[in-house]
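Tutorial handout. Part one gives the primary structure; part two gives the three-dimensional structure as tokens.
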Amino acid sequence: MVSLSGSWRQSSAAKLLVTASLRRTSLSRFEVSRMTGRDMDEVRSHWWPREGWWPGRLVYTWHLTFEGAPRLHRLAERYQRALAVVSGHDPVPVQWLHLTVQSVGWVDEVSEERLEQVTQAVAVRLRRLAPVELTFDRPAVRSESVAWEVTPAEPLREIWREIRNGIAEVAGEAPMAAEQAGGLHPHVSLTYINTSGPAESYVEALGGVDVEPVRVNVDRVTLIVQNRVLEPEWVYRWNTHAVVPLGADDGHRHVARST
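Part two.
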């Protein structure tokens, strides 16, 4: 959550403050799509300033990443081609497709010792959970993105809860993002909105795509070092810190760490 300086798509600093204020005060109305999966009537920029997340500041966070899912990549590219007729959004390169699960904390505030303790506590819990097959069907137009509402959601919520329990065991409590106050609503964004306005053109573009759903087997959760890259790329990038397997109680699979 970020307080940002520098060049922005918004026309003035005052407009940015208004946008941030609206984001805080109208959360429940705009977040309806997270609960229902239906298309929103209006969209707004995803790139509003998050408190504390200034350019270049890194965060440790648990994600599902999809580097080894070529069928999902092709599906994403098919929808992104359809959306290319619409202006005002930033497509996510397929190598950066992700499902956000749970933040650990800012890199400059979490010691290496604490991070190792968290990783071990989370790994113990995740090895008790089975891998899950996720289905990616037609994306929904959300308030700040076009995204897949991934199913089934409940196994992902169980992963989220166990990660939070592991963090809390070490740190006393786990960070809670505002959008997760009502629980995890798992989604994978195809593109991030950068201009406010009606959602109709996005809905129409998606309606022209006729493709079969894609299923992806998820057997691991990744702890990443994430960077929110603004102008001119407007994308989330990361380096992998550790990979924790699901369903590893047989002792044959262990935490893999990046060197």
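Part three, for discussion. The longest strand covers residues 235-245. Confidence is low (pLDDT under 50) at residues 1-36.
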